[in-house]
Structures
1.
Amino acid sequence: MALFSIRDLTFTYPLKDIPAIKGVNLTVEYGEFITVCGKTGCGKSTLLRNLKTALTPHGAVTGEIYFDGRLLSEIDLREQTQRIGYVLQNPENQIVTDKVWHELAFGLESLGYDTQSIRLRVAEMASFFGIQDWFMKDVSELSGGQKQLLNLAAVMAMQPDLLILDEPSSQLDPIAASNFLETVKKINSEIGTTIIITEHRLEEVLPMSDRAVVLDSGRVILDSAPKNVGEELLKLNHDMFLAMPGPMQIYAGLIKAQKEMGIDINPNADQNVDPNIDPIIDPNKAAGMSCPITVREGRKWLTEVFHAREIRCRDLDIAKKTENETIIELRNVWFKYSRNHSDAIKGLSLNISAGQMHCIVGGNGTGKTTALALIGGIHKPYRGKVKLMGRELSKYTKEELYNGIFGILPQNPQSLFVEKTVGLDLFEVLEKKTLSIEEKEAKVKAAAKLMEIDDLLKMHPYDLSGGEQQRAALGKVLLLKPKIILLDEPTKGLDNHFKIKLAGILNKLLENGITVVMVSHDIEFCAKYGDQCSMFFDGNIITTNTPNRFFSGNSFYTTAANRMSRHKFSNAVTAKDVIDICIQNLKTQES
Amino acid sequence: MKSIFAAYHPAVNFTFFCAVIIGSMFFMHPVLLCISWSAAFLYSIYLNGRKALRFNIVFVLPTMIIISLINPLFNHRGMTILGYIRDNPITLESIYYGICTGLMFGAIILWFSCYNAIMTSDKIICLFGRIVPAMSLIFSMVLRFVPKFKTQIITISNAQKCIGRDVSNGSYKERIRHGIKILSIMVSWALENAIETADSMKSRGYGLKGRTSFSIFRFYARDKGLLMIMTVFITVISIGAAAGVTNIQYFPSIKIGEITGFGIFVYTAYFLLCFIPVILDVMEEIKWHYFRSGI
């Protein structure tokens, strides 16, 4: 008997014509690890929320959900609370109490356990999750990763049979995220808890999962093992493929090249291929290898492809962008938050060229965000100089800086919204300017168009998805006509489609001569779209270079595509680079 | 300095503070007041170190002196007239009474400063959670949300600064408008995010019948021991109070009971009660000193 079996589930939100999920059939076996993926707004969260009555939103439901052989709606809330654990997206908002130990006990208190049994369970959880070091702390002292781990432990304290996680790591930095997902994996393999998870960062979750379920506009389009899902998506030519891990994308790119350009990627070029298999209809079998998911598999696959082939071209020619004049210059800048603190920035020197996208990458707490605040004039260095267009930053007035030079997009775009609708919010920026209403309207419209939010102007800002909120906030900032845009973690919590959209918009801005400086954990994004990358460590910049040289010079802190291909090619850092250089090499083989 | 008394069960801490604060309020006997005041003074310095010393000198002593001076100026009862200020008699009794009231106020302020250091929020929640579980959760949630909102308001005001909306410059009217805007963002943000908190609570069974209140504190044998010792002292003092050895009459003339053997016994009990935390800490110091020299 399956743990969950969903039959023909359709759910429609009130006042909506189109159902959010349509005719979903899904079976979840005991102990399975299932990843649900799909674009933002495809109905992932709606589906998951339907699996626990307490969290199901209002709306019309048809179809049946059986939990452990019984109808879910007939199982009382107490049993559901205990047996179905649910972890939500935002680590901060899920915590209810002020102490770590109290948070761990919260669910058990609700269920009415006595002090003795709560003490035992809480102690068990703290030991299993390695919480004992911060067990007595206030929750406000914890880092984001610790907070989410606490949420997970607080749910696990009730010993659920099933754990549902709705994008649990999207608000975490990569290290904390992989730590969190490892813990989820540990729960699955050591305790046998069934896991249903949705994620953007498929690189880490897919290799862990037994099955991947792909949703598209409310329907299940695929439900299979992760490897098969990759290949099926490829056959369907579905754009969800863009969200798949790097090795899978490279594989797909080459298969496509094989189909379109007739390049042979068969790894065993010297051996005879079974003539019964048509390489175009069934390229995988012809290639003798299945779709790689992890970097390790990708590396192995690439080795096989070039096993009997000579690599003639190891370097990719990258067109150099012309060097522009320096717009921001930091020279020997030192900063600390107060006299008793240690230095956050230590002798930082940095040049940022006009019209380029400058990415600052590095771990947590290395001072990246502080450096951005120094550039933007929010903090002032106690030693050293910050020069903006040849003039010292402190000589500018605040009016000049924030109304025509800098546009700063905060990490949380919600902190910019003040009005009832997005449209009014955009207008609000212009209220101080002496313009006629028509001129203002034209400006707002232009900004909305540039940000691709024209059809969202009537919505409340909080009702938008993360990516849309961010674009609305960026639109607001752009109405102030900045020359330099400072972004703090712009890709946090965005799925790949929104990232591509954001990159498109940033590119448009760059074309208009705007300089973009961004701080990010997202090295894949920086490698793809940045013009310059700087590595931040211990309050200083260790190295600055073009993404190409920058990432090919690193061996751990680099993209998946580079890690997968560095034994064959010297400077391919993005999936596209690897595909290009492979095609180049394969072509020369044939001629 | 971490006091060993703080490690005892909240019930023990709370009983102690109730006893000494009520004692300081009701016993106007100078001996008892001096005992209570000096215990509180010593313990507050032991707990908070230099900060407490500064607080005691800058705030508590002046308050005591002012109270002692004001009383004779307004209170003209008493038989022994020492002199006149603007035709108003100044009496010896009211001067004594003023000094004792000053001592009482001083002692209570000092005890409360110790109370604040010892009775942390989780201890209060533990005590009152037993009685009203819902209240203890609300209390805990408030303590969770205050720092959260504080950081959020800083985030919002920084973000607004970046689009030229600063509360720290501009005209008066503009500043107020920007401040209101920040508050309005704060409110919508708080409401929006509270939905997820509510979901998280619901998902973990909040609202089911029969909620219990868990507390991390355990009632050890030593808690029982100390509580029993305190009960003995409190009983002795209560008997003494009933027998009148703690009584004093200030007006119209000072009448104080003769010092008897039983009186001294009661005073000793009060002394030991007030000095319990200090005695515990001194004992602890000695014990560790010997431990260390034993190694």
2.
Amino acid sequence: MTNDQCPIKTMIKTVNLSKVYRTDEVETTALNNVDIDIKQGEFVSVMGPSGCGKSTLLNVLGMIDSPSSGDYFFNEQEVGKLAERKRSDVRKHNLGFVFQSFNLIDELTVYENVELPMLYTKVPANERKKRVEELLEGMNIMHRKNHFPQQLSGGQQQRVAVARAVVNKPKLILADEPTGNLDSSNGDEVMKILADLNATGTTILMVTHSQYCAEFGNRIIRMLDGQVVAENVVKRYL
Amino acid sequence: MFQNNLKIVWRTLRKNSTYSLINVVGLAIGMAAVLLIYRIVDFELGFNKNFENYDRIVRVVRHDRNAEGENWTTCMPLPAANAVEQAVPQFEEFSRSRDAWPTLTVPDPNGGAPLKKFNQPDDMVSFFVEPAYLKIFKLKLLEGDPNTALRDNGSVILTKKWAEKCFGDAHAAMSQTVIMDNLVTLTVRGVMAEMPANCDFPIGCLISYATLEANSRNYFYGEDNWGACSSNNQAFALLKSADQLTAANEVVRTVGEKEYKMEGGLENEQKVHELQPLSDLHYNAELYNPTGRIVTKNRLRILSFIGLLVLAMACFNFINLSTAQATQRAKEVGVRKTLGVSKGQLIGQFMGETATVTVISVLLGLTLAVLCLPLLKLISDVPADAPFVMLLQTWGFIAAMAVAVTLLAGFYPSIVLAGFDPIEALKTNTMSRLTAGSFLMKKQGLVREGLVVLQFAIASAFIVGTIVTLSQLEYIRQKDLGFDKNLVYSFNFNSDSASMAKMPVLRQQLLQLPAVESVSLCSDQPSSGNTWANNFAFPASGEDAPFNVSLKYADASYQKTYGLRLVAGKWLEPSDTLKEVVVNQTLLRKLGISNPDEVVGQELRIGSRRKVRISGVVEDFHSHSIHQPLEPMLIGSRKIYYNWAGIKIKPDNLAATTAAIQKAYDEVYPEQVFSGSFFDETIAQFYEDEKRFSNTCKGFGLLAVFIACLGLFGLSIHAASRRTKEIGVRKVLGASISSITGLLARDFLKLVLISLVVGFPIAWYFMDKWLADFTFHVDMNWAVFAIAGFAAMAVAFLTISFQSVKAALANPVKSLRSE
């Protein structure tokens, strides 16, 4: 079977996507006519210096921010101009987020944090329990399930955050510097988890400063001053 | 989801235990206050609703207008009652009624001293009524036939409690004999159940109207003319249907049009009868009510408003502390939003959290309210043992209150929290960024400051209210009323001829007691609730004066006993009949006479015929409460109207003296019931209402100040924690502890100062209105506001300083590191 016979679907497509922040005195262009195309099953890393617009791009693609102009198609549906309620709905069923600072809810245990997204998608209790336990086992933190985030190491917290991101089986995972707060060994571990997820078909878009982490993906988008300035395919030499 | 949210609530509450405690305690106190006020309002609004015919029962009253003003009265001249009964076709039943406060004795069939004797308790009233009265009020008899029980002269219906007191049980009481006021023999023809507590007819017994008619002389009843009238003579009717009130009223207004004119009276006087619905009886302060327990709807509104203010203040604390802590929950909001939660769902979650706190507060508030129920007697008539918690409607109110509090306290913080931008919220250092001064944060800061100002404005208004009411009560206590109210022990007695004949004996015995200085007999003590007004002329040969004069009958010892002061002439000589009078200064002033000596020895005319000589002029004294102005007055001797004895006693061993007085009374009147009291206590009862209002200000003012301080305390903790780094830096740069304390306290004290500017004019407006109700009152000068302002600032400073000093004392190295 070739691509011509069964084309891989485009998951994300942006056309002239721009984001401008305005205050009384200053106008800052965070994204400037960005055109990107990400296919289902890709693992794309976004790199660039601080302030180049990487995180803004991630936020817009993650539908927690809306573009100032341009079009954003998610699974061929224009979502850039959707109302907040609809965007929430698309997000809930399709996306998972992993943050640099983990962003676990301090008042919930490990188990409850991972379970949380399924409460919003109304997954039945039995199924929730099954999925949480599977994931925690897989991430090797089952023994910590009743602990609160503050009681875990950074690596453990990020594994919980990844578990929470994937528990609803999202089509796309958006990761914003997922290893930024981790030492190299824990960072490696998280990257391997992401790579494994990608191997099972989950699309991943990751913002990173680290070339090493970026090369876990199969394509790197480089940004500067709100624009995509280069794209490279990662070559792996066995 | 619910479970998850509940967990979050519980853990958040535990994590922020100080703030949680402030919120829960504040709300619980606010709710307890509202529940107690609800208890009062519900009790008062339920008055008389025990009567099945509540909507159809009316009382015939009269509206009098003349050149001096207007006045409402319940009095029904006898011919007027007959005319109304005849004229109004909308009446199904009609009954005259006359209030009575009888003593009852159970006679010894063998002719000895009475077997039992009872005074009617102060909180009960008996009535002479016609048989229709039972139908109007649909009173059911436990014993006896309602058709005949009140038909004949000498018939009485006792309440069950009285029947049991007199004869052991209700059935045994039937056909037994009791003696009323040691004058009238009554036969028990019926026994009825006790009336409920919230009823303006706390019936002791019902006596047939025929009895009153047959004993008219003893009860000063029977002047068959349109001019004679007493507020105790009333008339009640049952309308055929409730919607006939207007039609019946139109007929009633025409009754007596001609007759009152023919009676004469004051210039331009108009007397028009009206029907007062039973639903108005408990709330209309202008009309007499036998229980004297009138609570205006306005008073209930004010009370409700006070409760709502206190509860609103607690809600403000919740709002302030929730929004102040909002930044701490920004991350949670951000995470939830990225997980796809909508703003509406988040609002729902935060409202749910508020609801949980509210439920905890409700339970605590209810417990507090139940514990405080006995305190209600300090501000109301609500009996401590009346059902409350077990009533379904109480729970309905609690549920409604919980919903209202959840909405009031939770809505704004929920909107604020749910409104966080997830991108901002999830950035590192979000807290410092959000607190640093985004527009949203500034807006919330303004709202918080506004609410603190509002809270302290309310609290300071309460402080002013408390100071003013306490000052006025102290003024009343210390005011020279024109007589000496202390150490006068008094009792009333039957004024029938047999009793009066023995009075000199009693008087002599009392005067022989070493502790008794003087004994005076009179129709009224110097200050009382009674008014006996008459037309008069001065000089005697002239026209009637354009105003009525108030009359008191008293003997020659009255002046000495009550310490009245003469300004001209001399006091009355001993006499049994009216030959001379003493007039007061107000009478002279109203007549335009400035020299009191001028009138001594001259004659004046009372009523249409009786001419009397003026023997002296007495200094003005307050014959009513100081709500009322001084009135022109005549005091003369007239033995047949005496029914009060006042005894001036020495201060040593009051208990022994009063016991000796009762012993002397019982020896002279073994068949009568003694009921004595100190005159100053009787006067204090005039101001029961004011005392209650003062207690209300004091109690709720204390709560208001406490709740406001709770909120301020919470905000000061928040401010101190928010400014930890700043304080550390300042300390490193050499700031003193006092300058840092001042820095933290300054912002809050500024708000309290603004609150005084807001609260004081409001307090001034309301308290000025309250004081205007007294003819004699304290002035609300700057000192009141200075004290209140100082108190508010001092309390606020103490509240803040605890946290400020703690923050200022913290080790800067530690605080900078922890930042």
